[in-house]
Amino acid sequence: MRKLRNEELVRKDLEEFKLAGKTPIIIVLDNIRSLNNVGSVFRTADAFLIEKIYLCGITATPPHKDIHKTALGATESVDWEYVPETIDLVSKLKKEGCHVVSVEQAENATQLNNYVPTKGEKQIFIFGNEVKGVAQSVVSASDEILEIPQFGTKHSLNISVSVGVVVWDCWSKLNV
Q1: Which of 8, 76, 106, 138 has the smallest set of CB atoms within 10 Å of its CB?
Q2: Nearest CA to 135 among 124, 126, 144, 143?
Q3: What phi, psi does 93 have (nearest 5°)?
Q4: What does the pLDDT look like over 34-83, one tens digit per residue?
Q5: How confident is the model over 122-176, as pLDDT tens digits?
Q6: Where do the H-state alpha helices sit in 22-149?
């Protein structure tokens, strides 16, 4: 087998990306501290044609060199918006009929492997702070809590890894 060269990869240019149909997933970052994590989330969102990213609270926004370092230009392709309070955004999205899901370890959480996204329904996935997770007020206001099963000694995954796992799982279930 031979690795493909970049010019052999069939990739959309920026204009094609903007015009392409988007996956009905919105990512909400609730008070993310690491700019590298934010940049990595942008790259994942670009890879799966995610509709939008909301950056909330202390989450940094582009342009910033540390976000750019890991986003590799995805801040130009993926639609994003800053909202000061995550809970206000949750209220707005719920009024618009969106299914709001916090990704967190909580009582009665749905395990990711058991999660079945409804085709045609916009999925809102909220990911929380690297130390404190998703704010309790946001968890309480969510329609559902989603937990990534883990089997080792640690109790969490890096935020950018969590986004990748959840987005891939949901994308693959929506595109069968």
Answers
A1: 8
A2: 126
A3: -65, -35
A4: 999 999 999 999 999 999 999 999 999 999 999 999 999 999 999 999 99
A5: 999 999 999 999 999 999 999 999 999 999 999 899 999 999 999 999 999 998 7
A6: 35-47, 65-71, 74-77, 86-95, 136-141
**Cβ contacts of 78 within 8 Å, gap of 6 or more:** 42, 45, 46, 50, 52, 53
Q: What residues have CB less than 8 Å from 30, skipping those under 6 apart? A: 56, 57, 59, 86, 126, 127, 128, 129, 134, 135, 138
131: CB partners within 8 A, 6+ apart: 33
Question: What does the buried/exposed string (b/e) look like for 90-108 if buried means 16 or more CB atoms within 10 Å of the residue's CB?
Answer: beebeeeebbbbbbbebee
Sign of CA dihedral 101, 102, 107, 110: positive
Contact between residue 165 and residue 148 where contact means Cβ atoms under 8 Å apart? yes
